[in-house]
Design goal:
5 strands; alpha+beta; 34% strand
Length: 153
């Protein structure tokens, strides 16, 4: 049995993989992992990784003795590019925006863990680009930070 934190990240990866037409012309299979690709010297292609990040425990609600949990999940987009030019990088910036737009306000259909519905309450693209990776390795990398709300006993 996985932790709720892992189940939420798995549900995000499943949602990314369930909607390939939304991300066209980019093609990828998202994975859930604790770390995105770190061997940048050998990296090629496009990798999208859903990673657990943090959990914020809310106060116990008096009316129903349940607690709000805010799970911070990151979707890391990494793409090997030919150069640091606009034509090479813009498509992956657009992909990050598309992912953020799709998830903001979404109830994750693949989440079946405790607490009922898992709702993405916010999505933020930050940083827009890891400039150091782009300069040193020609890897465009950006992060879509999401907050997912669950109300649990």
């Amino acid at each position: 049995m996985s932790s709720v934190a892992v189940q939420v990240a798995d549900a995000i990866a499943a949602e990314l993989n369930a909607r390939p037409a939304l991300w066209a012309p980019q093609s990828f299979t998202a994975v859930r992992a604790w770390l995105p690709v770190t061997q940048l010297e050998k990296f090629s292609g496009l990798q999208v990784t859903a990673t657990p990040n943090a959990i914020v425990l809310g106060e116990l609600r008096a009316r129903d003795k349940r607690r709000e949990y805010h799970y911070r999940r990151d979707v890391v987009i990494q793409a090997k590019v030919a150069d640091a030019g606009n034509a090479s990088c813009d498509p992956f910036s657009l992909l990050a925006e598309q992912i953020g737009d799709h998830f903001a306000g979404l109830t994750l259909p693949a989440y079946a863990g405790p607490g009922g519905a898992a709702v993405v309450t916010s999505a933020l693209v930050d940083p827009e680009c890891y400039h150091e990776w782009l300069d040193a390795y020609r890897v465009f990398a950006t992060v879509v930070q999401m907050t997912v709300l669950l109300v649990r006993p």
